[in-house]
Design goal:
40% helix; 3 helices; mainly alpha
Length: 92
């Protein structure tokens, strides 16, 4: 297999949802594992692994949206209370 590219990493991570974030994280780790530690695609993949770890503990990617106020009417029905940029803390 040829060395993975930035586009390969983006193709894996782009459609990620909280439900599949940890499975995709494992795939990205596997894809970049044979690259040298200083390879730019490996470093990029490792950055995306961090995003996927946060996303796995979130309820939405919501990259371009602010966190919803708990004062908003209908708060109890909102599915995006923990976006990837500010996920819930993992339970232990």
């Amino acid at each position: 297999m040829a060395d993975p590219t930035f586009d390969d990493i983006d193709a894996l991570v782009g459609p990620a949802t909280p439900h599949f974030a940890f499975q995709i994280r494992a795939r990205v780790r596997d894809v970049v594992s044979d690259l040298s530690p200083d390879h730019p695609v490996r470093r990029y993949g490792e950055e995306k692994v961090v995003l996927l770890e946060r996303l796995g503990n979130a309820s939405s990617k919501a990259e371009d949206s602010p966190r919803e106020s708990r004062e908003r009417i209908g708060w109890d029905e909102l599915p995006s209370a923990a976006p990837a940029y500010d996920p819930l803390r993992p339970t232990e």
